[in-house]
Fold this protein.
Amino acid sequence: MHALPPLPLPSSDVPVLPPWLARQKPAGSAAEAAFAAGAALQALDGLVRTAPAWAGAWRQRLALKSAAAAARRLGRPEGQSELRDATHLRLRGEALGPGGEICEAFARLARRPPGLDERELQEIVALLGLRWRTEFAALPGALAGLDKTSEPPPFAAAALAARVVAPEAEVLAFWLAELGLARALRWPFAVPLLTAQMLGPAFRPNETSRLRPGSPGFERALCGALVASVGPALSLAREIAAHAARLAAAAPKIRVRGAGEVIALLLNEDAVVGTLRTPTLTRWATRRLFQRLVEFGAVREFSGRAAFKLYGI
Amino acid sequence: MARRPKLPAELDVELANLPEDLRWRTFMGRIEAILFAAPAPVTREALARVIGRGCSLDALIADLRAELRGRPYDLVAVAGGLALRTKTTFAEAIRAATGQGDPRRDLSRAESLVLAAIAYYQPITRGELARFFGQEVSRDTIGHLRALAFIASGPRSPQPGAPYTYVTTKTFLAHFGFDTLRDLPDIEALEDAGLLNKDKLLAGDFPPSFMAEPEDGSLPDEGNDPREEPPRDDR
């Protein structure tokens, strides 16, 4: 029997953005942008370091958002729900397809400590459907070099992204920036924040142009993107924390053998298939378990379909 | 380091006793020999295993390519790996001497259309392909493409019956000489025209400029295969 997870951080303890940040003009000076980004990161820092039990689900949800933006940039038609389907409706050993592979690249980003070796980077480049380039080989070293940098983390992340010069590899630059940011902040895990904003207003100084890694003003835009994404990331954390608390409260009431395994998955993944089979649970047992968890308000169903349901907190 | 799998004991990877230039030439030789012998593109990771720890694979490859400049074949990146390929100017000579290459891989016109549709609109189910072409796509067609390892099963589609979707494989990329899916002919133009969206296309939501063309004229041909060019509109 799985031990029940420790009581998660209650949603009231999830930090909020300082109220003055909301009034911040998006097109402020570089100093204003950097100051705002610092305040936003400070709000997030405590949460990331506490690593509540539901942090895995939170990061994976953010990763899915990032993957959706990346897929759009790479010309894929899939949105968030299609990407979620591609990831979860695959039988073991079958191909993911191009959309699912982009999703996988960002899921990996959010799953592990911010380190990288060349082989892992090659896999990521392949998952993103990009061509390997000679200069990519220096990137893992540059990432590790951030341990010694005295630059502020957002600038260090921008500098790392700027090392990916190939314009078609912009998504990779953002993927690395996420990792670089976490590394420079000494976070135990990467939290995808920037990629989801890559097509957003933060990187669009005016209607016609978009700032890419390495272009002048990119650092400032990255600070703006951080401010724009930390607010929604914190409210997402509050939402997930509330579900996790209800899940923890419901856990003793559902006396199902093997439920602990499902709960652990729910706390660590973006979504779980409604027909999950584990050594102790048949797909029908899982289905009943999810039905009860929905009644307790502990999980929600994402797909809105009558079949092929996907549950998450 | 954990990422270097164990090698058979006899292969000396470092070649520490050789002078520097000879060592370099040996590594170049190894890489060319491996690519020459390999039936499929070889990953960079596999190649990195047979060269010394401090050597740059990219520098070795650059030197090899420089050396191959006058030769009838070249070292190219395909399907995420590296392979030796004859230069296209010699294609006719090869065909004249040996026939049309691998006869198993001869695709009928219908098969290449289906393959192109899968390549551009993956992941896509057989049912969706049928709606796309306005006629049933036979299991034999899919089966043949699968047997050639050009397509594989992807995630299941969330529809009644949970049909498999089809996606293209590395073999497909390697055979047609693409490194990534972004190398498919005209993919940017299709994207700009909003034609890469499967759902939109199946809903009959064609942009007006394409409505002028009869039938499924929006579907581009593989473009890479000179055998596949019978005159269009032969019906």
Q: What stands out?
A: Chain A has twelve helices and three strands. The interface with chain B takes residues 74-75, 77, 85-91, 94-100, 117, 119, 122, 126, 129-132, 134, 137, 168, 303, 305, 307-308 of chain A (CB under 8 Å). The two ends of chain A are 22 Å apart (CA to CA). Chain A has two domains: 28-235, 251-312.
